[in-house]
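Re: the 306-residue chain
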Amino acid sequence: MLDIMKRAFAAATDTAAPVSRRTALAAGALPLMGLAGAPAAAAPVPLGDSFSVPQGRIASYQMSFPDKVAKLRAEMRLYRDLADEADVLLWYYFTMFVVAEGRKVQPLVRFEGIEFSHHKRVDADIYMAHGHNMSYPRHIDTGAFVDTVVNPVTGATVKVPPTILTEDPGMLYGPEGKRPLNRKSGEFTPRYSLFRVEDGLVKAEEIRVPPDGWFTPFIESSHNWTPKALYDDPAVTRLPMGTSGGYVFPFPAWLEMGEIKGHMFAIWSGRKLDGVHQLPKEYYDRAAAEHPELLKVDRSKFAKAG
């Protein structure tokens, strides 16, 4: 979701922030779930209300848009909000797997976290988005909070830190794709997304590829959905959204893989919330105790935007 908004390693034309998403994927890894809303705009409709057994053949067909601007606005309604300026909170779980060459794939650790962001329209159909991520590790089997895990490849016990990302440079989203704010060129990286109807749901299936020059194991694909009845109502400018997906990224530094070749694979699931008051109590209590400043969005980046 603030996909997203995720980068693994920079292209030669980019400049890294000290603790940006790209460095985090080498140091902690997190999901970027696309364009990650004003709390009052969400509709109280269950996300799974259309999963009843069909009476006949399942309805499934691709949606089309008259142009790229119309598609961007559909993405903003689903991933974020059509408002010119809004906060967006995504809450998620993700599970990490170790994919080492010549060895079987092994589950490693779960994380529970949020991506909390703000966007502002800075030009006609151009939106600036900036935010942060805060994720805490959980045991792969019991789900309890942990601070160490056993590397299933080396057998060593390693410290697994929370993933706290606060220095992302931000992103521009427009009809042509996305562009990190620290990219020297004005080029937008395209996003590949397919909107389709599946019975009572509208689904947006997105593939995020790295920019040219990122010669690292990174790719991401997500499935995001909302009730079709709400999507068809133009008065709903911020749609409720469920999300799931998977991505490939390099070994995090804390895993201490040394010269072993391979990469990580992770899957996530989550949903867009109306505010921190909706976060699960256990997660909220820990965040409020350890990182209370991250339970709100830093809007200082937007002071001169637009």
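The CA atoms of residues 107 and 221 lie 19 Å apart.
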